[in-house]
Here is the input.
Amino acid sequence: MHNRREFLRSLGGAAAAWLACPVGGSFASDKRRSTSRPNFLFIVTDDQRYDAMGCVGNPLVRTPNIDALAARSTRFDRAFVTLSICSPSRAACLTGRYGSANGVTSVPGTLRDPRSTIAWRLKEAGYRTGVVGKWHLGNSPAECGFDVASYFVSNGPYYGRGVTENGRRRKVQGYIEDYNARQATQFMADCHSAGTPFFLFYCTQVPHMNHEFDWPARAETLATYDRQDMLVPQTWQDDLAGKPPYLKAARSREQALRYGYDEKENIQRHLQRYYAAITEMDAALGRVFDAMDTSNLRDGTYVFFMGDNGWFMGEHGFTSKVLPYEESIRVPMLAAGPGVRAGVDGRLVLNIDIPPTILELAGLPVPETVHGASLVPLLRGEACHWRTSFLYEAPTPSLGSRPLYAVRTQRWKYIQTFDKSDPRHLAFEELYDLHADPHETTNLTGRAEHADPQATLKRELRRLREALRP
Here is the structure.
């Protein structure tokens, strides 16, 4: 289904949100307005869970700079990714399209059409485009529309990291997030001095584990976190009854056991180090925000902040991501900028919604091929219809998963897992009432009293999948 209006109508309530929004034309030829166009800073943190911020009420993690951004933002309390893994999430963030449509459903992944990114659309409209930090696509930054690129590929050490600056390789002395902050600040300052509107795609390395499967926070930062205060998930000893049998020996469980997650002290140790790493990443972001204020960039810049995916910290005895449970697919998401309403929004929003939002705010048309819906009416506090369900897809086995699809509503989640050797064969079904069972411990599939919601969600999942087909 290529027609954008048809696709959005197929998604139900989300359609009206986009169809009711006026979309302006390009400002590229209007030189008088070129310097008044808004700037865009799109920050994507790596493996940051939805609850790993102080502003959501987590008293154990310290994120003062993210919290300050949240105070002037619309904070989306139910934000999700369409596929919870590095490359597919970044591809979705840049294109506004599901991985099964843009070509990236695993790591590594290459966009079928690199010119479909918002970087290209903004660049063609006169924006200076830049990427800083982690790059995890088979296409080069230049192929994806970035004028300036200071990046490193995939994951690695926090210190002494090899980077590429506009084609030149070098090794960074010091902490990688300090480097990212310097490069981001310089890019924005250069654009501001030149009077050129910018789009900066800023992808942190932290809090992804380093190459040694650890979070090497500084000793002084770790000392501010008491390991004994860390709260072990209620489901850390889950026997996985009611979940696909393969998960008992899948990578998410086996790797967790290698980390020692059969003892809660080891989960506490990891939580301590994970939170400490986030605090150090937050400090680097704070320097970027301070530099924006010093340069008077705040009032003319929209800032989007989100995680590329979640991360299991012992829930169900798991580590890692990809699997369709909340800790994996739910992410932090903030949006701040001119005219943005400060507050909390509990509607279902997705990473694919950010590209059409940016395009609308830039006064540019949203391509028919984009699957996401513009968040602009939500940011402005305007009444509008919105999606009541969304599709999560992980069709390509990754990090030990099997092909799977899920549909989530405000209350329910329904999951289909398929046979690895025959992706057409439905091997297992799960149904969770998230109001009664937020930790997803009780599979309600097959129970007579839940036959109606299961049948409804099964139809909805089929409808959403069919809506993606050309």
